[in-house]
Write a structure and sequence with these properties.
Arc Repressor Mutant, subunit A; nine-stranded mixed sheet; about 260 residues; 2 domains; Endonuclease, Chain A; single chain; alpha+beta; 10 helices
């Protein structure tokens, strides 16, 4: 898949936001939420799902319908951090790729990363994701109905004010392309199986991965189980060993090594 320029990606995200706003306008003319937990929109392009119980059901059912892969943009805050269906589907051979906003790694309760990121999930981090999102098999997508409602949802409960379920369409294709491009640009997250592992190339790889994701030093130290002073000493040692003068140069050096 071709790499987009930043301007093109910004334009794509803006266009998707405009489409979502239009669908939200259509949803407001749909029947009352109390009697109709799901409202269909013209052309069978999408459904608007209301009500916490129905939303949770759809989130779980959409994952259980997956045959190959579940993709997601993840960012806090969370109503329900747990996603029990994910472990079930991973065991069934469905792959999960989750792109975490850096703030997710610094969010209260995320310090225990082996519990926060399920075993078997492919995880990457980026400074910011454009929205909360779930895409299943590249065919259907689930996202908050309103842009300002994004902050109300979580990994397993995307929004409390209404979810937009998109059926196979060019809209889903565009969201899939947006996800793949952001995924390519993101930093893989690596975590040690044993938190007591001493300083090593593997630990340095974790440190650099977290550093490049944009996470603050204090949060990185928490994730690695070391003191802030120890972390800063290790970063200085890495800069000395790579001949870099600052963190920006260190990040550039690491990026070049990965591309080599």
């Amino acid at each position: 898949m071709p790499r987009h320029t930043a301007a093109a990606l910004h334009g794509l995200a803006a266009e998707l936001a405009s489409v979502r706003d239009r669908l939200a306008d259509l949803a407001r003319s749909a029947p009352e939420q109390g009697n109709h937990p799901t409202a269909s929109l013209p052309g069978d392009i999408a459904e608007v799902v209301y009500g916490e119980a129905e939303q949770r059901h759809r989130v779980q059912q959409l994952q259980r319908d997956a045959r190959k892969e579940v993709l997601g943009f993840v960012r806090p805050p969370y109503v329900d951090q747990a996603n029990p269906v994910q472990a079930e589907m991973l065991a069934a051979g469905v792959s999960y790729r989750s792109l975490y906003e850096a703030s997710a790694l610094d969010y209260p309760g995320s310090a225990d990363m082996p519990g926060f990121i399920p075993p078997g999930e492919q995880a990457r981090a980026t400074p910011r994701v454009p929205m909360k999102l779930m895409i299943v098999d590249g065919e259907r997508a689930l996202l908050p109905l309103h842009g300002d409602a994004d902050s109300e949802g979580g990994h397993g409960d995307l929004a409390s004010a209404g979810l937009l379920l998109l059926h196979p369409s060019v809209l889903v294709d565009a969201l899939l392309e947006l996800f793949e491009d952001r995924w390519l640009r993101a930093t893989p997250l690596r975590f040690a199986a044993d938190p007591e592992v001493p300083a090593s190339p593997a630990l340095d790889a974790q440190l650099l991965s977290l550093l490049m994701s944009g996470l603050p030093d204090k949060a990185i130290a928490t994730q690695l189980g070391v003191s802030l002073r120890t972390l800063q000493r290790r970063i200085r040692a890495l800069m000395e060993s790579t001949g870099t003068a600052n963190r920006t140069q260190l990040a550039w050096y690491v990026a070049q090594q990965r591309l080599a």
